[in-house]
């Protein structure tokens, strides 16, 4: 190509002509043609030809190369390679293609397309250096086959066979290549395919049952193939008529062997079973779809488990099957049940301690065993003479040859019973009277006044300290009704003199005070503290005198104008002197509680608390002038209280009726004393419960004074409560065991309490208070005075 560019030079009036260009390239030409390998190609397989060029070529359209397959010309179409120097052409063998002399490669045609180089020169289509195709063979002929029944099978035969014969050797034939068509009410399966030469195949169809026809067909699109992979087309085989009515496909019962082994054509069977149980449950499975089973006058579906009652001796079980065509087959099973054993005797009876008197004999019913005081538990090991018999010891079933659960022995007589039940229901009872000795001449500790006094003192101190903490918290919740009272972070000290009985401090609580800071926002948090000291004395039985101290404190948060909540902790300590010999009980407690006061409507308050605590109890019990038995035990508490009150306020008057419910449970761990010159005791676990309900009313009136406010108050309340301490076992440490007990103690009281109070609120923030309170319950009386000192900080 040439190109002329003219330019005019203005100043020189000269014309300059520049000629540029390049020499034209030669058109593309083929270098060689690679042909498929020397193999035989079957239906669907590809013959790829690779045309190599002397330069890069670009293809549009679908050029093709003609191939002569047999006597027919085919086209190998362009597949890929544009933009390279090698183009791929492909022909896919079609059914009926056949050339075992080698295909012939013809000419390359454009078919309306183009083959150009980068300069758009048209390619020379002559194919050069074409590879040999003398052994590139094509076989597109599918194998064919015929199918026939082997022999003349009868309709009642359980299986039939078919011959499938191909016109050439094929491979890949298996069960999945066949389709068995079952007529209505017929069952069967293709079970086996075998061959000895890959030409003739033997197909077995078995498990035939029902009334109708079956047909076997060779499927299309199987994995069967001749030497080049050509698969035969599917076709149906001959039809066979089945006349073999459905019956049972099997039956079974757990642990039962039937004779002979099941066969669908066998209609009678037998089995033997032991005397127990008195029924046999047999699961029957029917053949075919819709086959029903009838037994005991009832119709069942296939797979049902049917119970049959058995008597001793021979039992004939009759079961019938019925097909959807109404054909009935009846089976009989003769079940022989052994006679039940009447043996209700033991072969052996062995005690865990001591020996039977008289020596054991199966027919002897009554025995005695004597053991020392050191033996505190006892068991029996019975062995039945008949393995089908059962045995019960003191009402508890026991496995033959195994020990019964251990029973705790009391000092003295302890009866045991052994009841053997024979297989037929007969029973025989053995009795064993076990006598546990008293050991040494040690006295009964449960009758000792000091032991009982310590137990009572511990119960009373646990309740008293808890009531003190609840009282402190209840008083605090009453203060929550009034914001100024709530803000009076305080240290309260109360002193009272009372007799043992319902705790006065719990009954009374604290009254809210006049709010000198009403309307002032003092913030949501408030810290408080309070205390109580109780001096108690009881003269019923052994003299008991106690001092109980309780200190509580906590943190409040005002969540809203309607609800204030907080967390409080308490420390308590009690010391009770028991009698005049130096015996005493000391108790310490730590409690924590969540509490809150809710005002759902004006002047109405609901106060509640829930908490838990831990206990440490120490005891000192007089043994002699020079020796004491010392004990230490731990415990836990859960408690709660709920109060509802309504406050009527008129000027400086306050009148507030209220009701309260208190509940608690304490758990005291078992412990053993130390020291005591051999008289130390071991104590078992104990629980202490308390539940009470209170109805009361309180009132107060405020007088304005030059120095602050003087507020007298009064209250009255009625409490109905119940208290209970669980039975506590005890025994001597040196002897072992806990054969003695302090019995369960329960009491119910109705208590009337009256109180007067006088509080002085000094403008400097100091509060002085005094309370007088009196309580009565039956013959019990209590009076007390408490002093309070508060200072805001």
TrEMBL record:
<protein>
    <submittedName>
        <fullName>Autotransporter domain-containing protein</fullName>
    </submittedName>
</protein>
<dbReference type="InterPro" id="IPR036709">
    <property type="entry name" value="Autotransporte_beta_dom_sf"/>
</dbReference>
<dbReference type="InterPro" id="IPR025883">
    <property type="entry name" value="Cadherin-like_domain"/>
</dbReference>
<dbReference type="InterPro" id="IPR005546">
    <property type="entry name" value="Autotransporte_beta"/>
</dbReference>
<dbReference type="Pfam" id="PF03797">
    <property type="entry name" value="Autotransporter"/>
</dbReference>
<dbReference type="Pfam" id="PF12733">
    <property type="entry name" value="Cadherin-like"/>
</dbReference>
């Amino acid at each position: 190509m040439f190109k002329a560019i003219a330019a005019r030079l203005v100043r020189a009036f000269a014309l300059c002509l520049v000629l540029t260009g390049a020499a034209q390239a030669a058109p593309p030409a083929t270098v060689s043609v690679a042909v498929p390998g020397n193999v035989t190609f079957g239906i669907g397989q590809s013959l790829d030809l690779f045309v190599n060029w002397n330069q890069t070529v670009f293809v549009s359209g679908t050029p093709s190369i003609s191939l002569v397959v047999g006597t027919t010309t085919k086209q190998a179409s362009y597949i890929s390679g544009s933009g390279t120097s090698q183009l791929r052409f492909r022909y896919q063998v079609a059914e009926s293609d056949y050339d075992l002399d080698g295909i012939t490669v013809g000419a390359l045609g454009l078919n309306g397309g183009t083959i150009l180089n980068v300069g758009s020169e048209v390619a020379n289509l002559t194919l050069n250096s074409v590879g040999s195709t003398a052994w590139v063979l094509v076989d597109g002929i599918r194998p064919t086959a015929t199918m026939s029944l082997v022999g003349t099978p009868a309709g009642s035969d359980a299986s039939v066979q078919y011959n499938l014969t191909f016109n050439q050797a094929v491979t890949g034939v298996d069960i999945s290549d066949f389709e068995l068509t079952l007529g209505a009410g017929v069952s069967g399966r293709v079970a086996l395919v075998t061959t000895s030469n890959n030409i003739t195949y033997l197909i077995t169809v078995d498990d035939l049952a029902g009334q109708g026809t079956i047909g076997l067909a060779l499927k299309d699109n199987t994995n069967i193939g001749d030497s080049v992979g050509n698969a035969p087309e599917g076709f149906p085989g001959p039809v066979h008529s089945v006349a073999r009515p459905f019956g049972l496909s099997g039956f079974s019962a757990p642990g039962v062997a039937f004779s002979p082994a099941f066969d669908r054509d066998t209609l009678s069977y037998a089995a033997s079973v032991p005397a127990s149980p008195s029924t046999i449950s047999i699961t029957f499975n029917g053949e075919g779809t819709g086959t029903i089973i009838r037994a005991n006058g009832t119709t069942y579906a296939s797979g049902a488990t049917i119970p049959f009652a058995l008597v001793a001796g021979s039992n004939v079980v009759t079961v019938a099957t019925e097909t959807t065509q109404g054909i009935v087959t009846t089976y009989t099973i003769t079940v022989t049940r052994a006679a039940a054993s009447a043996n209700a005797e033991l072969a052996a009876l062995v005690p865990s301690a001591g020996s039977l008197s008289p020596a054991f004999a199966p027919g002897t019913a009554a025995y005695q065993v004597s053991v020392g005081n050191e033996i505190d538990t006892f068991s029996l090991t019975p062995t039945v003479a008949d393995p089908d018999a059962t045995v019960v010891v003191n009402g508890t079933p026991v496995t033959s040859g195994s020990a019964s659960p251990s029973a705790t022995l009391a000092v003295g007589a302890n009866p045991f019973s052994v009841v053997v039940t024979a297989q037929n229901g007969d029973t025989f009872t053995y009795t064993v009277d076990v006598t546990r000795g008293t050991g040494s001449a040690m006295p009964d500790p449960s009758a000792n006044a000091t032991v009982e006094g310590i137990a009572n003192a511990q119960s009373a101190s646990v309740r008293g300290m808890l009531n003190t903490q609840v009282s402190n918290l209840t008083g605090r919740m009453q203060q929550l009704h009034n914001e100024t009272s709530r803000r009076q972070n305080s240290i309260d000290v109360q002193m009272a003199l009372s007799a043992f009985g319902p705790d006065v401090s719990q009954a009374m609580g604290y009254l809210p005070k006049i709010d000198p800071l009403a309307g002032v926002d003092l913030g949501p948090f408030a810290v408080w503290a309070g205390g109580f000291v109780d001096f108690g004395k009881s003269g019923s039985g052994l003299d008991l005198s106690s001092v109980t101290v309780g200190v509580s404190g906590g943190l409040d948060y005002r969540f809203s104008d309607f609800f204030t909540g907080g967390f409080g902790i308490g420390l308590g300590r009690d010391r009770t002197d028991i009698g005049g010999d130096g015996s005493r009980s000391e108790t310490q407690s730590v409690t924590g509680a969540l509490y809150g006061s809710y005002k759902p409507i004006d002047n109405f308050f609901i106060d509640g608390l829930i908490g838990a605590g831990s206990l440490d109890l120490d005891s000192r019990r007089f043994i002699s002038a020079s020796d004491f038995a010392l004990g230490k035990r731990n415990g836990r508490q859960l408690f709660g209280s709920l109060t509802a009150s309504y406050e009527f306020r008129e000027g400086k008057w306050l009148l507030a009726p209220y009701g309260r419910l208190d509940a608690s449970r304490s758990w005291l761990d078992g412990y053993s004393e130390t020291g005591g010159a051999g008289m130390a005791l071991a104590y078992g676990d104990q629980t202490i419960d308390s539940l009470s309900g209170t109805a009361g009313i309180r009132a107060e009136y405020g007088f304005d004074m030059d120095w602050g406010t003087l507020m007298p108050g009064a209250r009255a309340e009625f409490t109905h409560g119940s208290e209970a301490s669980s039975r506590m076992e005890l025994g001597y440490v040196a002897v072992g065991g806990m054969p003695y007990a302090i019995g369960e103690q329960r009491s119910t009281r109705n208590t009337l309490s009256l109180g007067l109070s006088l509080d002085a609120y000094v403008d400097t923030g100091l509060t002085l208070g005094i309370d007088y309170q009196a309580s009565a319950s039956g013959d019990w009386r209590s009076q007390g005075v408490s002093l309070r000192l508060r200072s805001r900080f």
